[in-house]
Structures are given as C-alpha cells and as structure tokens.
Amino acid sequence: MELRHLEAFVAVVEHKGFRRAAEHLYLSQPAVSARIRELELTLGTPVFDRGHQSVVLTAAGESLLGPAQLMLDAARSARRSVQLTASSGDVTLAIMPGGALEMTRPLLVELARRFPRVGFHYRSLGMHQWHPRILEEVDLLITREPYPAADTVMTVLLSEPVGVGVPSSFEESDAAVLSLQQVAARAMVRMADSVPREIVTHWSLTSLTNGWEVERRGPAADGPLETRDRVESGFGMAVAPASVSRLYGQGAYRFVPLEGVADSRVVLVSAVDSSTDLIRAIHREAADVVARLSPLVLGGGSAAVDEVVSAAMQL
C-alpha cells in the first residue's frame, strides 16, 4: 500500500466521486480507478460498494478512512517541514500596538521553530511611527486597520468586535451594546497630534458615522495605555477593539461593543512587490499556526519574542 493509493482513496471520498477526484489530483479517471483497484488488491477486500450510484464506503473502507487521512497528513507535514527547513534568509517583522498580543507571542515562537534557518528581526512600532509607506521599511507587519497604502498580501490572524472603552462612572458602562447615536452624545478621549491622521480618523466616531463631530477632552493620548488611563479618569470614551479590553482593561475601564460596526481584523501583511518565496511561505505557515493554536494562550520562552511583546504592551 503506497501513499498514492491512499491519496486517490481519500480524494474519491472527499470529492464524492471518481471524476471529481481525478480533476483534483490532475489525473485521468481510469488512473484513479486503477489506483483504487491496486489498493483493494493489497488489502484483499473492496473499499467501495460498486452497487450504488454514489460513492459508498464498505466497512473496510470506513475503517481505512481515518488512518489514511492521518498518514497523508503526516506525509504532507514531513514534506513541508523539509521544505521549510531549507528556507533561509533574514526577515524584519514589525508589530503595531493594540493587536491581539495573546496571539502574537505563540505565532512568532512557532514561526521561528518552523523556519530554523531564517533570521527573524523583530521591531516594535509605536502608533506615532506608523505611516502609509511603512512596508518599504519592513518585510512583514502585524497590524490592524488602517492598513499601509500599498499593494499588499494579507493573512488574517483575528477578527473581533469594535466597541468603546467606557469609564465605570458612566451609566453606559453596564450596557450590553451601544449604538453610535448613544455614544455620539458623550465626550471622547483626545488623541495626541503625533498619532498619524489615518489612525485617528479610522479609530474615531467621525469615521464610523460619516462625519459626526464629537467633543474631545483630557490630556492627549498617544497609545493604548495612555488612552486607558484617560478613560479610567473619566475624560470620555475611546473607540477600541475587544482585545484592548483584555490587554489593557482593568480598574475603571469597561468595554462595550458598538452596534452595527464592522469587526476589526488583525493581519500579517507584506508588500506585493517584495513577496518572495520565503515571505509567501511565512504567510502560509502563519495561517496554519493560527488555525492550530486556537484558542491561543500566552506562551513562549524566546527572549527576543518576550522583549518585543513586552515593548508593544507598553505602547
């Protein structure tokens, strides 16, 4: 019994027929049928019931399906590991604050493990360092909206609700959800002039409500921690993604989702014109890591990763 036999068998099951399995495998239908016959000769028993119009597994086929899928997964994983181990080079990966940092740490640790010959150089960016052409300075960026103004390749790491940070002293702090109309009546925390206009515009009620102007109060804030402090002090509300509450919310800070507002996405992004085979491989592996490590928890043990995540937490 060879992997090509198992590959044909699983393809017939998953694609519900010999013709579609052949198209998936880029083989002729007779070639797929021949592989199934060879498999049955090796096993000494049929794996499909030929008396039905549709694909029906025999008892032997049912018992084979699970182990066959595991064997194919193991073979693909081994092949991918060999290919990734051969990848080499240096990559600069930057991280913007306010992302889902529970995800960032295990993602970076696992990427470093999967690419042992790649030198990852981590860079922590403050909000004031963002600009539309940031991808000219780094190979990869973990960020959320607004995205750099360039042709980009994106891998979504997380999608989560958008809401407002509310002082516990406000009556709205106990609400399950708030409308834009309710929030527009309240003052918002002032943002520092050093924060790029694109970020201020995106994370504001003015952007979400097509131009409503709101009152802004308090000392200017230039990052999530300062914003939390201003909210806790009662100067006003602040638009934020749900993860900000988990990372920075404490004491008098409450997070309340906004009704009818699109989710915010954390992404791994690179410029199209710098998308080498290595960068594309990192995108693919990042998607696989996120799928496998959900739900994610803090972990690691890499000094480089711990340093950049700790720095980002302070921004």
What is the CATH level 1 assignment of the largest domain?
Alpha Beta
Distance between the termini: 57 Å
Shape: elongated
Determine the number of helices (DSSP H or I, runs of at least 4 residues). Answer: 12
Side-by-side strand order of the widest sheet: 2-1-3-10-4
- Overall structural domain count: 3
Q: Please provide the ordered H/E string of secondary-structure elements.
A: HHHHEHEEEEHEHHEHEHEEHH
Give a written overview of the molecule.
The chain has helices at residues 3-14, 18-25, 29-43, 59-86, 101-114, 180-184, 197-202, 205-208, 224-232, 242-248, 277-292, 303-313; strands spanning 89-95, 118-124, 140-144, 152-160, 162-167, 188-191, 216-221, 238-241, 253-257, 264-271. It has 315 residues and is of the alpha/beta class. It has three domains: 3-85, Winged helix-like DNA-binding domain superfamily/Winged helix DNA-binding domain (Arc Repressor Mutant, subunit A, Orthogonal Bundle), CATH 1.10.10; 87-159 and 264-313, Periplasmic binding protein-like II (D-Maltodextrin-Binding Protein, domain 2), CATH 3.40.190; 162-257, Periplasmic binding protein-like II (D-Maltodextrin-Binding Protein, domain 2, 3-Layer(aba) Sandwich). Strands 2-1-3-10-4 form a five-stranded mixed beta sheet. A three-stranded antiparallel beta sheet has the order 8-5-9. Strands 6-7 form a two-stranded parallel ribbon. Strand 1, helix 5 (101-114) and strand 2 (118-124) form a beta-alpha-beta unit. Helix 1 crosses helix 2 (18-25) and helix 1 (3-14) crosses helix 3 (29-43). The chain is elongated. It starts with a helix and ends with a helix.
